[in-house]
Amino acid sequence: MWAVWEQPWIIAALVVIVAVVAVYEKYRRYRYARQRVGESLCTFARSFDYRLIDTWIIRAVYEQVQPLVEFPIRKTDRIHAELDLDGELDEIGEEIAFRTGRDFTNTKQNPWYAKIETLEDLVAFFMCQPQVNKT
């Protein structure tokens, strides 16, 4: 408290830093949106080898993630750094599992567990999850 009272420039510096970071983040997202004009689910799906990957997983990943960001997504987008989806990943995962008929209980046995960095990794993770038996 003493430093804040005696050195008000500290507060001013923090405010300026926060403002600069916010402006940079907004510009970064705007730049992504400009570079990706016209990209859609079709563009996202074609970036995968859809003959080897369950297309329901590709679609579910796209449809769960795309509404959460302001620009078209790509498989190389990093979940934490570029998309900023840290807190939503569990909810997204549960919905993707439900929509694709994949088990979401024994995720620690998945070779991709704790290795998901990009959306491509997220698709690979669900490819390794077993399908739920429908009885």
Largest sheet report:
none
Bulk shape: elongated
What is the number of beta strands? 0
Number of helices: 6
- Whole-angstrom Rg: 20 Å
Q: Which whole number gives the mean pLDDT?
A: 88
Provide the low-confidence segments as ranges: none
Approximately how much beta-strand content do the residues carry?
under 5%
> Structural class of the secondary elements?
mainly alpha
The sequence of SSEs as H and E is HHHHHH
What percent of residues adopt helix (DSSP H or I)? 40-55%
Distance between the termini: 64 Å
Question: Could you explain the architecture of this structure?
Answer:
There is one protein chain. It is elongated, with a radius of gyration of 20 Å. Helices cover 53% and strands 0% of the residues. It is built from 6 helices and no strands. The longest helix is centred in the first third of the chain and has 27 residues, at 9-35. α4 (55-65) packs antiparallel against α5. By secondary structure, the chain is mostly helical. The mean pLDDT is 88. The protein has helices at 2-6, 9-35, 41-46, 55-65, 89-100, 119-128.
